[in-house]
Amino acid sequence: MPKVTYVHPDGTETVLDLTPGTTVMRGAVAGGVRGIVAECGGNRMCATCHVYLDENTPGAFPPVTDDEDELLDCTAAPREANSRLSCQLVLNEETADTVVRIPDSQT
Q1: Which listed residue, of 46, 88, 91, 92, carries a Cα 20 to 30 Å from 98's Cα?
Q2: Are 45 and 106 in contact (CB under 8 A)?
Q3: pLDDT tens sequence across 31-83
Q4: What is the DSSP code string of 4-55?
């Protein structure tokens, strides 16, 4: 079962065991993780589920698409090389130990 560690801006962590096929965003919303706004509900329209994918997380996620890349230019927090929209990070058995850092602001 995939495990996601959400690192909050203050350094505290929330760890959730999630079902394969769930996105990092949906897991956060269902698990009450603060800092993931997800205004559009995961429809890749708002960029309020922006996270920084930890560099040590296995590379099992697909690369950034053109649509995601465009939205990442509109995030409230600075875009970094490891910025992703958590609604686009679908968990599977290969993403068993995913770590994401939540930015200071989403809006």
Answers
A1: 46
A2: no
A3: 999 999 998 888 788 999 999 999 888 678 999 999 999 999 999 999 999 99
A4: EEEEPTTS-EEEEE--TT-BHHHHHHHTT-TT---TTSSSSSS-TTEEEE-T
